[in-house]
Amino acid sequence: MILAWPGVQQSGGWEAYNLVIHELAHKLDMLNGDANGLPPLHRQMRIDAWASAMQRAYDQLDRILDADPDAETPIDPYAAENPAEFFAVTSEYFFSAPDVLHRAFPEVYAQLADFYRQDPLARLQRLQAEHPDYREPA
Ligand SMILES: [Zn+2]
Fold it and tell me: Is the pTM for the entire model greater than 0.85?
């Protein structure tokens, strides 16, 4: 995997932008063939639950952009490019802006929490409780 260094340098904050996570998500997606937004899921996960959560959110984003291509979208409109980008972009949010993703698409957040086997929102909320620097400006 080759990454552009300026993109890596801009990654790693809590700002929903993370090139490393984005490209890794594509790699995970391709473990079972073409990148199509459906990576190999853990055994206890259900493909239909994954597909319906992702599809509903994707369609919702698509509807907003169909109505107005310049609309303010809850997440980066690039996610509406295709299901593979939707998975990669929501993975970025999952790790670097879990609060935004959870607010916009709670079902997608839940699927990604099962997939990545962690809960970054809980981590962020703990940080926000302990360190004023992480709190959102009121
Ligand atoms: Zn991509």
Answer: yes
